[in-house]
Design a protein that fits this description.
Strand order of the largest sheet: 1-2-3-4-5-6-7-8
Order of helices and strands: HEHEHEHEHEHEHEHEHHHH
Oligomer: single chain
Helix content: 40-55%
Shape: globular
Number of helices: 12
Low-confidence stretches: none
Length: 300
């Protein structure tokens, strides 16, 4: 497997598209396609269907397959597709194999949802998935601050298709140490906490970042990564200041409204309904107005 183009796709704005719902609560496929086209037309080249901003855990297995197929079909050759997979090992493998058969180039493995995750068990979980799809790039989504970097190196020794990491522990110093313990040059390091953490994580070795905000304002996210690539941290921080309040709303109360705020902004622009599925919930009226004002201020 030639991983060079896949690594290049990860060293970019890795968009996590929303999953829009219709009035009847089902996936609104036509709106979904329109939102994907908007991202691609806006310059986004890496898409992650079935990520957390896409409400991965609120979708049925059939809906996750639909989102995968729809995204791959809509993107064609204009974007690289990194499909989110997870849950129990057989479910994750089935989803990874489906992604492969549908034409995806990579899978992102969600952090195992289990109250008891051992270091060795983390390796075994990811090894089982990565070994099932040796022709796909594999990107663990890492949210566990206890995992040592040596375990990631162990996983990659067994599965060379593990080529990148979505690192989402909110600690830049820990990230810097983890990346160096695992092998800084061995993987593509993606700042998994989006634009707010991107400048600090880039300073420690990240070369890409995930984004939910990009659904609303692709140019804003692209402006940030261009500044970071050029080493212009003052310019990157100007973008940071521009999106600060939006991201604070998303991150409040343990990120309770992470997806809700993105969909509210899209609804204020007339691009999709604001509907989210439990355990997420729509915003109260006062916050809706604030989100709409922020989005309007970006000149979209």
């Amino acid at each position: 497997m030639d991983s060079s183009p896949l690594k290049a796709a990860l060293a970019d704005v890795v968009a996590i598209p929303v999953t829009p719902f219709g009035e009847d609560g089902s996936i609104d496929e036509s709106t979904h396609r329109a939102l994907l086209r908007r991202l691609i037309d806006g310059g986004v080249r890496t898409l992650t269907p079935n990520g957390n901003t896409g409400e991965f855990y609120a979708l049925t297995p059939e809906e996750r397959r639909t989102v995968t197929e729809l995204t791959i079909d809509e993107a064609g050759e204009r974007a690289t597709i990194l499909v989110g997979v997870g849950h129990d090992v057989p479910t994750a493998i089935e989803a990874a194999e489906h992604a492969r058969d549908a034409g995806a180039q990579m899978v992102m493995v969600h952090q195992p949802v289990h109250p008891y995750v051992s270091d060795g068990g983390w390796v075994d979980y990811h090894r089982a998935i990565a070994s099932a799809v040796p022709g796909l790039g594999v990107v663990p989504y890492l949210r566990n601050p206890q995992l040592p970097g040596a375990r990631l190196a162990e996983l990659a020794d067994a599965c060379p298709n593990v080529i990148g990491v979505k690192y989402a522990v909110p600690d830049a110093a820990r990230f810097a140490a983890f990346a160096r313990d695992a092998g800084l040059e061995r993987f593509v390091w993606v700042a998994g906490l989006a634009e707010p953490y991107a400048p600090s994580y880039f300073s420690a070795g990240a070369t890409g970042f995930t984004s939910g905000l990009v659904n609303v304002a692709p140019s804003v996210s692209l402006n940030m990564i261009e500044a970071l690539r050029s080493g212009d941290y003052p310019a990157a921080m100007k973008v940071w200041e521009q999106i600060r309040r939006f991201e604070e709303l998303r991150g409040a109360n343990g990120s309770a409204d992470n997806v809700t705020v993105v969909k509210e902004a899209l609804a204020s622009l007339g691009l999709c309904r604001r509907d989210v599925r439990p355990p997420s919930k729509q915003l109260p009226e006062a916050q809706r107005a604030e989100v709409a004002e922020i989005a309007a201020g970006w000149g979209i």
